[in-house]
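Please predict the structure of the following assembly.
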Amino acid sequence: MGIQLNEQWNNTMKNLTIMLSLVLSIFAGSALAKDTVLLDQTHAAKGVKCASCHGKEDRQAVPMLKCVQCHNTEKLAAKTADVKPVNPHNNRHFATETDCAKCHHVHQKSENLCVSCHPRFDLVTP
Amino acid sequence: MSKESKEIDQYTASVLQNGISRRTFLTRAAVGSSGLAFASLGMGSASAAPIQVGTEYGEIGGATLGFLPKPKPIADKDIATTQTFDVVVVGAGASGVPAALSARESGASVACLQKQAIPVSQGNTGSGIDLKNSDKSAIESLVSRLMADNAHRSHPGLLRQWAYNSGEAVNWVIDRVKQGGGQIVDQGTKPQHGIRGIADEGDRLNFVTSFCGPKPYTTGDAIRALAKTAEKAGVKFFFNTPAQQLIQDESGKVIGVIAQTRDGKYHKYLAKKGVILSSGDYQNNKAMCDFFIPELKNFERKQMDRTGDGFAMAYWAGGVIEPVGHTKMLHDFDAGPASMCDMPFLAVNRKGERFVNEKVEMSLMNNYLKDEQNAGHYSQVFDSDYMTQAKDWPGHLYSPEELKVYMPEEPGEKKGVYPSLTNTYSANTLEELAVKLECDPKTFVANVNRYNELCKKGKDEDFGKPASKMVPVLKPPFYGIHRRMRVSTICSGILVNENHQVLDADGKEIPGLFIVGNLGAGFYGGVDYPLTVFGLSLGRCYTFGYLAGKYVAKL
């Protein structure tokens, strides 16, 4: 039992090291703000387990369907209806059904996808 | 008419010889290994290519084309639902929605599958020829001009199909969009600045120019209104349902589509009469762009999710992709007035250097700005005398007051524009203007001074612009329109005949498979989409959707 736990712990640490080095290599040179809370922490704080999104066996990529099991896109769009300069959750490209992952990243910093084409859409993406 | 005995036209023969299909891959690969001349391609022969067992990707001469993944087998037990229609349309855009509605109006039962959650389209203007008020010689003269615009690489038969049917089709779209509550008007021939001089004197050449606007309203909104009309007429739309692969029977006939819903489930949509692919271009598919049009590398994309799904589907069904060197469309009608885009004011690149004879139209400017630094950016520069000095230039001038809606620095609500994309500035000094246009002030001022010198001389010794267009930049306030050429679309595609039916590598029709819109080949061919007829692109989409829908419904 103890050995098994140890192995699991070792594997977890190994995975963490790999992930951490990946994250570090992505952000190498850029100041990764300490106060930026990534969405994996937000989810974990709400009790969401890895397997809830990634599946129980082989770690799977997360399709938007997983997100919408908890996040109702139309309610979300209504909640951000007054965001200026534009409501990101009801846009001209995808209406309320933009793939969440286009802007919101879970294990790394989210991005403002709009701004690459619309220079004045200075939205902050959690 | 026997399909076999019909003579193959020049355009089709060329694409069959030079295009990319599973046949050409196999032939070229064989040629490559045996060292024989390429001319051994057995054109018109009936021999079908052997299918290589285990081939996962399309290949050309040994190169693996990973962007053409072979459809993976989907077992019947993995199909959640199966529905049968007369016609299945893949893609709810400016050609797909008209195709679906027109097929429905011709009596067919129709399904329209869409990858996104809503119908999607861009632009404002879609044009056709007003046949009743045009002379045939003028129409033919326009077809000839479009052939020249397209570097003589398009299929004249397809251009004529647009020319002689587009008036009817665009009027039909106008009416049906209005039925769906959309904003659309016929502006007639007035916006067609580019057709001057094409028809002989005394010959009539008139247009039905549909306009969906003003911005931020676009054809996207109008196509969504058209979809409402279509839905009311009985077209069944399936959103968030990207098509994955075509279903073919043993003979190769296309009999339906397998699509996947967001929950990961597969669904079969069987088509008794035919499948119409209208899934658009591939600008967001990097590997495809690098292969077919590598010069696009440094340009920003205007669209999202244009991954060229229809290309792989049609390729694996036996279709032929137009040869490498596809036609692109890069515009910016949002930074400043569209009607001033082709006015030959002084133009400078992103650094502030004059770089071209400004008579080059905006639609072609990207060719001078392909590098990483410029990446499609340039600025038109003029001084406060522009209203008099440019009054006879091609297009329509906006007064300084009217120009303000394009100026992000001007306060107040902006109507008729995309406020997030406007990019016009005025300044009292050249240095100040340079900063606003994001140019190096020193370089910018030196280039303006050099240009003013040449204007004074009346000879453009640097770029050869006619003296009549050498208008100096002297009197403040100075104006600049900073335009960004981004990719609107890529408009080369899969070989079709005049019924929009896909042809195989032998030039034979693939039963049950049709293509309209920018996924279809043969309508362009030049380095860029021409702006001779303003709204040609949407006009072609509407027209071919309208015609193909009717044709397939009556099979």
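Residues 6 and 12 of chain A are 10 Å apart (CA to CA). Residues 2-27 of chain A form the longest helix (26 residues).
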